[in-house]
Amino acid sequence: xxxxxxxxxxxxxxxxxxxxxxxxxxxxxxxxxxxxxxxxxxxxxxxxxxxxxxxxxxxxxxxxxxxxxxxxxxxxxxxxxxxxxxxxxxxxxxxxxxxxxxxxxxxxxxxxxxxxxxxxxxxxxxxxxxxxxxxxxxxxxxxxxxxxxxxxxxxxxxxxxxxxxxxxxxxxxxxxxxxxxxxxxxxxxxxxxxxxxxxxxxxxxxxxxxxxxxxxxxxxxxxxxxxxxxxxxxxxxxxxxxxxxxxxxxxxxxxxxxxxxxxxxxxxxxxxxxxxxxxxxxxxxxxxxxxxxxxxx
Length: 297
Known about the structure:
The chain is mainly alpha-helical and 297 residues long. The chain has one domain: ABC transporter involved in vitamin B12 uptake, BtuC (Orthogonal Bundle). A two-stranded antiparallel ribbon has the order 1-2. Helix 6 crosses helix 7. The model has no long low-confidence stretch (mean pLDDT 83).
């Protein structure tokens, strides 16, 4: 057991999984933080990114690391379109928060069912995969494949880039203002509509990029997105709703819990570990590891 816990290869696997979860959860947390929309179709954007990357490689021989940009742009445009057609009117109707959350949950659930079945109809339910950067690399006693190393580096770099964007760019600061206090942001002149459409674009784009990275190491299928949706919700609850940096830290924590938990037990325990962490956290600290307790006055 001690050798297992001290394994560098296991640590690398946990970091790679955590980076993927962080990238997926980042977009979900951004959309929820700025608009209080519960996107239960978020994992289907991972599926979309995986298929776009697969077909770019299968039909055009385009490297997944090159097609990432096109995948991100396509998903961002889809996000902007979804906001304009489906969510702008809902958000502009001055409904109360709980009602917006409930309506968005139902709408996204319907979109998820449509996306999954449309993908199954167009691409067939058969899982599809390709081989890319599958050579084994050795770093001391640690053996790892090039595609997993590339996925870890790209996911970590993109998470860092988004955090820096939110800290230093004008649009990023406007997003943070909207997350912290929507009404105050409007009072000081933040263009709410512009920030919301940007949040949709960034949220959809990062999820699709995560799907592109996942496709380098796993097969893609129409129904692959649900586990990523669940993991993303676990991450944002652990990190605190709307707290993006906390979500990234929580993603790596979840990656460690899942990877080491499965190594010490079996793969049959993966879902138990995932949902068990979620339930235990809700019972022990519902505001998240990095959230603040609400004080009633």
